[in-house]
Amino acid sequence: MHPAIHKDRLWSHLVWPLLWPLLLAQLLLVLLCLAVGLFLWLATPDPTSWAASGWLLLTLLVGTTLTTAAFLLQLRHRLRECEAQMEEGLGRVERLLLEADQILPCWLAPPVLTVSDLDSPNARLEKLQTNVAQLHARLRQAPDLGGLLMSVSRPALLLYQGRIVAANIAIERLMGVRAEGLESPETRLRSMPVRDGEPIEMQVLDAEERWRQLEVERFEAGDYQLLLFDDLRDRLPQLGGLVAARERAREDSRLKSRYLTLLQRELEPLLTELTEQMQKPDCLAPGHLTELRERMAEVTLLVKSLAGDGIAHESPDGSLVSTPALPLRVLVVDDGPVNRMLASQVLEGQGFEVDCVSSGQEALDRRPLQAYDLVLMDIYMPDMDGLEAARRWRELEAGDPEGSRSVLVALTANASEEDRRRFREAGMDDYLAKPYGPRALINLLRHWRPDAFDVPVSS
Length: 459
Known about the structure:
By secondary structure, this protein is an alpha/beta fold.
């Protein structure tokens, strides 16, 4: 900024208001000298008498003028130098403010005011003060690197030109040293050789004075470096959970494949038989309709399982069920493989011991060998139906007074009042209407054996 292109601002605003009274006094002094000389000239017409006085007054007038002019010239030169230095200083401050404004994000606050070279010094100073205040406000709104670093859960260090300037609580706990004692990274960190395709690793001296090998992510921006550490040992529980989830997904996929195979196996003969029965004149016989209803209930249950209605580990109120307090032993008697598989899956998911048979005679053969807390008995089975099997089961229990009494539950798609009466007469305690879902089965077990369940844990 060159002062030659500007007006003499200090001269016009500071010096001139003080200088003009001085110049006015000098002018009055000159006029007074002239008046005295004129008076002497008029009072003594003889030139020889006032010549000496006139030269003396002229010398005084010239000397005063030259002295004043020299003083003013020196003052003006000094003021111009001072003004040039002040202009240069103001220009440097303006450039620094502009650079700082460009560094800070524009979304923090409005940009600073523009300072013009044509403004007066007072106006420029006021604008500079306003800009400094705005800059201070914007700096307070700038992101807090230390606060952001503290919010990171992983151990983290912030370095500036190779010197540690900030650390979060996780790294302090790992190293056993506060951030003030981590200025030199050489004593606490060791770089490891980097291999192609492998993550960067570093050795960190922990609180127990042992070197621990950690993976590190490095982020660089100018002279700053951000180091994020990751302990492989902390990943083991997460990795175990992922592996378990993968195995569950594979098991679900295998179960779905089994469901589809069973669905195809059940549907093909059912549709063939339905077609043949529809062509017979006695297709509406009650026995045929009952058997058809049973088979359709099995297919409906399988379709519901494929649609995702199964909740093997969920309680009726939507809460997760913990391991049973008392492990029950359950016997599933059903000639349909679909019902056996789905019931077994639900009960085993609750932690119960489950046995499955496909006929009433097989169930009776197992009675002397194993005591069962609950028996799920299908009603319509070939050779021996569920009612006959229930009667003989109760007879075997009557002949064994020291044995425990099992809870017999009928599985049927026909649950009219007459059917429920026949179930009770055969010695059955309850019934479960087909198609039933896992929730209904769990509710049934909770009703008859509430002691076998722990308090559910809310999900």
